[in-house]
Amino acid sequence: MASATRRHRLDEPRAHHPLLQQDQLNIKIPGPAPRYWPERPLWVSWFWLGLVGILVTVFSLITTPFIWVSALFLAVQNQILRMIYRNTPWRRSPDSIRVAVIGAGWGGLQLAARLTEHGTPVQIFEAQDDVGGTWHPKQRHEGLRLHTPAWAAGFNGFAPCDGEMGASVDHRPSGGAVFEYIRRFTEHAVLSGNIRFSAHVEGIAYDSVTRTGTLSVLNKLTNEMSEHGPFDLIVHSALASQPHVPEIANKDQYSGVNMHSSQLDRAFIESLLVSENQNVVVVGGSKSACDAIVALHEAGVDPDRVTWLYRRPYQFCKVERFFHDRSWRSFVRACMAYSAFKMGTFGWAVLWLIDYSWTYDTDPWSLPLHAQPGAIATLASEWEQFHFGQLDARERQILAGHLKKVRGNPVRFQDKGLVLEDGEKLRAEVVIWATGYRTGIENMIFSKDGQPIPNRLVSDRAVFEHAVVPLIPIMLTAQTFFVAIGPIRCHALADYALYHTCIRPALSERRMVEVAEGHRCKQTPGQHLLFKPGFWVTLPRLYHDLVSRLILSSNSDEKHIFDLIVRGRLNLLDMNLLPRNGPALWTDK
């Protein structure tokens, strides 16, 4: 084994390390579940794999000629344009602009590190007392782990060390391990001196004449307001800074504990162990809800006291399938999955057939063979409920065994619980809402040339090229530029930010609004794509928008996804936007 100080490449396999088997409660966990759970009869697996293989082959033979011709045309077109762009001069020097980054999570830090490589001065504003964002101890809920193995979420140029954050392909780091890794990257990239902690950005004032912005910042330690700037570029990098709790009637009549899943910490779970008469309702069907159920189970809370309430079941990938062991069998299955992700609604049925996905609500394979097609068709109709969630074998086993599941919609509180839409009443001394997050932009105050801007015109309006706020064109939102997983997506965003600020001429607000409204995937800064319905349906549209705008090359996004799903590798998404020399060709029409 390599020494503990050696760092892996992003695509290098990991060695096992016991750090990843510990949760934050330090409670001894029983032996692990089988590697693949639930087990499926071998003949069933091979039957469906063979059938799907035939269907995918026929589909490929029919569509491949058209795909290759169009791909060749787009590739040639893109390469010609890339050659032109690479010879376009810098309109402004990168070291002549000032950049403010709001949020010191892994995205904001990766963005700042990339910008500093080009000599751009960067100031980071973080509301917490340390880096980490979602992974900060005050932000992460109990049991939070990385969705992916560590190799799939490393910083560019600073992949995890042996035993530092990653292990074998079917292990995912704990929240604490990820937090420490982010802190080490901050030191490695020499970013500590650029960060203002306990600095909550309350508002942005934009000056359209100078095309600069000033931040109004609240010091959370002293409660003093201060202004910082002017900045030539402001990047909001906060995916989940604001917990979202639905507003339902009679909240003031409820006498129990009403909380968001992000507040589910070790101390609270220990209090549940002491107070054995408290019933708990976990509301939501997302990955956060799954984490809450698993955390309560592993801490020893009696399952009979925990009710799981959700409107519709979410669907998840089996983490050991998605991030596979790179064997030839896994490679074949991954090729089918890669094709399935491009098939729309029908693709979800294919994922089920090849044992790639799972839901806690209804398992078709537990039904008689003649009933399986109907169950799979029902699940396929709920394709939009897939949000890139990953569950390992142990989590699936715990969630499947949790018997107190209720499908319903809470409409109001009562003194000791919730009342559902159909009139059913659930007793609960504790209600935990696992209902997602918002970015926090909707709570900020904006102005332009001294005049206030209604927040909804910023937080609820589509962004230009999935990054730029049209009304404040010096403001970028990192959370909407979802071109890759992990922090490396902000490596790509940094290149785009320099391209937008220092290379092409300034675009008019009218033009950016027109383009943003014409995008096939319309994103708003207020909520991340992961917390909205239809993730896998809208993600290809996002890539299409960026390819059509010549921000991504036609083959770069395909290669990135293929490498991740099929080859089990994470590679940088090369934007090829930054120039060398030559004439400027961009105009604002």
- Tell me the overall shape: globular
Distance between the termini: 58 Å
What structural class should be given to the helix and strand makeup?
A: alpha/beta
Mean pLDDT: 80
3D architecture notes:
- The chain has helices at 42-86, 106-117, 175-188, 266-274, 287-299, 319-322, 328-340, 345-353, 372-380, 393-401, 456-459, 489-503, 509-518, 535-548, 556-567, and strands at 99-102, 122-125, 195-196, 199-207, 212-219, 224-231, 233-236, 242-243, 257-260, 280-283, 306-310, 315-318, 357-358, 386-391, 405-407, 410-414, 417-420, 425-427, 430-433, 437-438, 445-448, 451-453, 468-469, 472-477.
- Strand 2 (122-125), helix 3 (175-188) and strand 3 (195-196) form a beta-alpha-beta unit.
- The strands form six sheets. A six-stranded mixed β-sheet has the order 3-2-1-7-24-23, covered by helices on one side. Strands 6-5-4-21-22 form a five-stranded mixed β-sheet.
- The model is unreliable at 1-33 and 581-589 (pLDDT under 50).
- The chain starts with 41 loop residues before the first helix and ends in a 22-residue tail after the last helix.
- The chain is an alpha/beta fold.
- It has 15 helices and 24 strands.
